Task: inverse folding
C-alpha cells in the first residue's frame, strides 16, 4: 500500500498550479474476521478498504475532501484527479482562513512493525476453537494490517504500518450469565490465550456459586 499511496500522491502533485500546495492523507486496512458462537465458526469475512483525504491550499484559502478508493491504481488516479479539480473549482468561493497554518519544513518518517503473526491465520482460529471446546464462547476475532500515510507537495513522506490480532469475546453459562474478555497483540501465543480462557471460566463458575434465589 505504501508504494500505491506515494504514486497516487505524486500523480496529484504533478497537476498542481503555481502557488498551490497539496496535503494528502491515507488510511487503509486489510483484515480478516471470524464470528464465533458456542465456540464454533458462525461467519467469516474480510475487510479491504482504502481512503484518501486531500487538502488544497492557495494563499489563505483551503478546501478539504475525502474519497474512498478502489485499490485499482488507474481508477483511483482518475478519481483523485477529478477530486482535485473539484476542490480547485470551489476554492475561490471559500473565505480566507486567518488561522491557516502548515509546516513548510520537510520531516519524513517511516515506522513499519514487522508482521510477527502466524503465516497460517487458521492457527489462531483453531486455537480459539480448541480453547473453547465444551463451552459457549461468543465473540469476534480479527487479524490484519493497518496503514496510515501522509505526503505533501514539499516532498514530505510519512508512513506507518502494523499487523495485529484482536479477540473480543464472552463466555456464557447455562443461566445466561457471562464473563466478557478480550485479547490482542502482535504475537499469538496459544498457551497464553488458554490461560485467559481458564481464568474466565473460573470467574463464570464463581458467578454460578453466588446465585441468589
Result:
Amino acid at each position: 500500500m505504501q508504494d500505491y499511496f506515494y504514486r497516487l500522491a505524486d500523480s496529484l502533485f504533478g497537476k498542481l498550479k503555481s502557488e498551490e500546495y497539496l496535503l494528502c492523507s491515507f488510511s487503509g486496512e486489510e483484515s480478516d474476521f471470524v464470528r464465533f458462537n458456542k465456540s464454533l465458526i458462525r461467519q467469516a469475512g474480510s475487510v479491504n478498504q482504502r481512503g484518501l483525504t486531500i487538502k488544497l491550499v492557495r494563499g489563505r484559502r483551503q478546501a478539504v475532501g475525502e474519497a474512498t478508493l478502489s485499490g485499482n491504481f488507474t481508477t483511483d488516479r482518475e478519481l483523485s484527479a477529478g477530486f482535485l479539480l473539484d476542490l480547485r473549482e470551489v476554492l475561490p468561493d471559500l473565505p480566507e482562513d486567518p488561522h491557516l497554518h502548515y509546516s513548510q519544513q520537510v520531516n519524513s518518517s517511516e515506522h513499519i512493525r514487522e508482521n510477527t503473526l502466524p503465516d497460517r491465520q487458521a492457527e489462531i482460529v483453531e486455537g480459539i476453537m480448541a480453547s473453547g471446546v465444551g463451552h459457549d464462547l461468543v465473540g469476534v476475532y480479527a487479524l490484519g494490517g493497518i496503514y496510515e500515510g501522509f505526503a505533501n507537495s514539499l516532498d514530505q513522506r510519512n508512513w506507518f504500518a502494523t499487523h495485529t490480532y484482536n479477540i473480543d469475546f464472552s463466555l456464557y453459562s447455562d443461566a445466561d450469565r457471562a464473563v466478557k474478555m478480550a485479547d490482542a497483540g502482535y504475537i499469538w501465543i496459544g498457551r497464553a490465550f488458554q490461560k485467559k480462557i481458564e481464568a474466565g471460566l473460573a470467574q463464570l463458575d464463581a458467578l454460578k456459586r453466588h446465585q441468589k434465589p
Notes: The first strand starts at residue 20 and ends at 37. The longest helix spans residues 190-209. The mean pLDDT is 92. Strands lie at 20-37, 40-58, 61-69, 109-112, 136-152, 157-172, 178-185.
